[in-house]
Write a structure and sequence with these properties.
The complex is a heterodimer of chains A (172) and B (193). Chain A is mostly helical. Chain A has three domains: 50 residues, no CATH class; 56 residues; 41 residues. Chain A has seven helices and no strands. Chain A is elongated. The chains are: A mainly alpha (172), B mainly alpha (193).
């Protein structure tokens, strides 16, 4: 394994320029400047040579066979067709819900409700309960609180007894 | 399509026609860019099936959002942006596929090749597999933006300006990403020099 310290270092202020130079991304003036520098700088020349060796190694192009591309296109056409059908379905819904259809539908619903309520007004009545059931409904909450009232009465009696006791002791 | 054969039309015309519902126009765009799209996706995934899925998904998304594409950028810049974002999402999800020689992935191809050509010796094959694995690992260790800029430059040969448009960033930033990626790879692959 190569020692990391042995990696060729370029002049710091030329490093990025050399990378871009390798990719042919320097302007004519920059190219001239770099060429001139390379002639007098073995470190930068070596750095550039290393880029020429290492970087092409990183490209690993895949060359699938013709059958792969046939199935690729076929599959994609199928997926596109499904997407189109889905789009058409949504478009159908959206075309139904065009801006003018929403208020129109809402108005129609309100009108129908209004007409229905007006026409059926006479038939609307509250449920009449027989008098017995009505009385029971009134008594029920009182019955539920009966225990509470009883305990209150008991406390009142205690107060009364206490008062009486107090009066007796006072007179004695 | 009344305006001529799809393969003779420019991207802009094809996009306009596809936006009007001409299915053939979009299919022509697919034919035009499928190999490049696949290659970029492969650079990220290193897996044939994953690259196929990702590139097809990019076409599907482009198709679904085509009506929102205003053609201010070129079709391929817009499309590559969709693709690169999908590839980055793929990496973010952590689905890193190990670097495998294709022969290992596709048994049938390997078998056919073996019959036609005895190929390199097992030692050499193992060495080449090891180098491939190291390069794959080195690429995988790059931060996503550095890797994107590097792949688009080094593998696809796009210009800095095009990459900046695809990545929606400044040209200076792309240069920095490429520079850092190259230095990191050089360091990781020093033993191969």
């Amino acid at each position: 394994m190569t020692d990391m310290s042995s990696i060729q270092k370029a002049c710091k202020n030329y490093e990025q320029d050399l990378v871009l130079h390798y990719y042919g991304e320097s302007s004519p003036e920059e190219r001239e400047r770099i060429q001139a520098h390379l002639q007098g700088c073995p470190s930068c020349s070596r750095f550039l040579d290393e880029l020429r060796t290492v970087l092409p190694l990183t490209v690993k192009a895949d060359e699938p066979p013709e059958s792969f591309w046939e199935s690729y296109s076929r599959e994609l056409r199928q997926r596109l067709m499904t997407a189109r059908e889905k789009n058409a379905w949504w478009e159908g819904i959206f075309s139904f819900l065009r801006p003018w259809t929403v208020p129109t539908l809402a108005t129609a619903v309100v009108l129908i409700l209004a007409v229905t309520l007006t026409l059926t007004r006479g038939t609307w009545h509250t449920r009449d309960l027989p008098p017995k059931e009505e009385a029971l409904l009134e008594v029920l909450p009182i019955a539920e609180n009966l225990e509470f009232y009883t305990s209150m009465d008991f406390l009142d009696s205690l107060d009364l007894l206490e008062d009486m006791g107090g009066a007796d002791s006072g007179s004695a | 399509m009344g305006t001529g054969r799809p393969e003779e039309l420019g991207d802009e015309t094809l996009v306009t026609l596809a936006q009007k519902g001409e299915h053939k126009a979009f299919e022509e765009l697919v034919e035009r860019y499928k190999q490049k799209a696949y290659r970029i996706a492969f650079d990220f995934t290193r897996d044939r099936e994953e690259a196929k899925d990702l590139s097809q998904e990019a076409f599907l998304r482009a198709f679904t959002h085509l009506n929102g594409f205003d053609q201010r950028a070129s079709f391929y810049t817009w499309f590559y942006r969709i693709l690169v974002n999908l590839c980055l999402d793929y990496r973010r999800r952590g689905q890193r596929v190990s670097w495998q020689p294709f022969e290992e992935h596709d048994g049938k191809t390997a078998e056919k090749n073996e019959i036609a050509n005895p190929g390199p010796s097992p030692d050499r094959e193992a060495m080449s597999g090891e180098i491939s694995r190291k390069i794959g690992a080195a690429l995988n260790s790059l931060p996503p933006k550095q890797r994107t800029a590097f792949v688009l430059k080094n593998h696809e040969g796009l210009s800095i300006r095009e990459i900046a448009k695809i990545m929606q960033t400044a040209e200076g930033t792309v240069k920095t990403h490429i520079h850092r990626a190259v230095l990191a790879l050089r360091q990781s692959l020093a033993e191969l020099v």
